[in-house]
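Bench notes, afternoon.
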Amino acid sequence: MKKKARDLFRRSIRNFFTDHPKIMEQQQQQRYSYDPTLRWNPEVDSYLSHAYGPAHFSRISKALTRPSCYSCIRVNTLKSTPDSVIEKLRDIVKGASISKCEVEGLEYLVFVKGSGPHSVDYGCDEDGNVNPPLKEVLVSRKCAEAVLRGAEVYVPGVLACSAHVEKGDEVVVSVSVEQPGAEGGWVVGITRGTILQGAETDPYHFERSGMYIGRGKAMMTRSGIFRAPEGIALDFSDRVYNLPSFRGVLEGEIFLQNLPSIVTAHALDPQKGDRILDMCAAPGGKTTAIAILMKDEGEIVAADRSHNKVLDIQKLAAEMGLSCITTCRLDALKAVCSRNESDDITKLCCTEDNLDATIQGFNLMKSEVEKIEVIAEKDVKKNVTNEKANERTYISRADIRKDMRRKWNGPGRNQCVGGKAEKSKGFAPNSFDRVLLDAPCSALGLRPRLFSGEETVESLRKHAKYQRKMFDQAVQLVRPGGVLVYSTCTINPGENEAVVRYALDTYKFLSLAPQNPRIGGPGLVGRFEFPDGYTEEWLRPGQEELVQRFDPLSPLDTIGFFIAKFLVGSKEADLEQPAT
């Protein structure tokens, strides 16, 4: 049955999955190409090579440097239908291959096919050289990763460019990736605004070889790029990977989301009327997916420790028209409190009335800013007039903006219209039917990824320790007979299988449960002994098929991801607080 679900999913988007395209051998030898190598800390490389096998891990590393070949879109079935969305998208994304998922329970997903890698024409000669050298724009690594997913190059992402770049000039786009620093660690080593000469004396000239992601036309002059606070810096004519951008497209009707994240919401198996806690909810994708599966009937508490991220969840819920989602600021390490101290979170629930108020609040933000700007301008003029009544004065727009920000910001974003993040004191034990712990992690499964050297064995262990502490909180909040789902977006078994092993060994009332749909692969069985003598225990034989591990190298072509589902049995004995 499990294999049948995986095969059905692959057939539903078969035309998307071909053998991963190989860059031509000649192109690999050229400077102007895209052929990145993911660099790992040597100890982490050894650890992950043991977990997956050296050859397989090498292929995983290569897969992480490229984006998925398709975009997965979740349709808000409370507002629209997959067929309606597909019809609208065909008018918006011209010529793209669009299909609907055929797996039972996932029929509301829509896939939009991308393409790549493409061999971009940089005007190279037979030796791979370009004479004269093309004008070049160097972007940050994070900017490049977004571009590979379909985004534009915005001004803040540009680090350096050639001299005398004028608006409309043809430019090539290269990537600056962190390099080993002279005093250890990793550094970018390029001051923003540096002039690229196109010579071997340029910063990281040789390191940029094989790190070119396309070409296009400059939308601003060189001086404009480094002076403007925002805006699109260049317009691509050729990209290594072509994926459509869905920024601002069908807002409220669709949500762009990685496939494993959607499967996580299904693994929780939410039912109408349930009380559910999403412990680390930002940016709200899984929260809203759960709400839609519940038909917006029940109660979902979406918690995050970041004030601004909580506001983002509120905004997304308002856009999608969901009223069952309540938000709060909460540190996941302090999620449990005594019953008399716990929050009566129901008073914070979104009713239809305050949902409308929230939507209106976000719509009013722009007009309120404009009003404040006018007031600020008047106040600045008044102040200047009073102080220097007999002098001729000049009021710069910078002064107006500064005064405006001072009046607007106040103590923070919680003062803006429609935006307030309540702080929670925590919740009583056994107060939720289901809990989702999508734990903060090393994120080593996210793609495309052009750098991974910052993680060490020590930092990976710290991630796992933090996750175990959060799990200790989560397991107390689920009532007996309830469900706890644990997920991460990393390929590190120490944050995945090792946490599951810890949970099962520590809490005897927990048991792994089958997941539906099951389209991911099995977990890792075994252990790893580190050079310092510490032994990390993974799954026991027979448990591997009860979790879902999404391999970036698999035919599903997803990010690296992990999902475990636990059933909570009778808690006859008091919950211990284990030392982690």
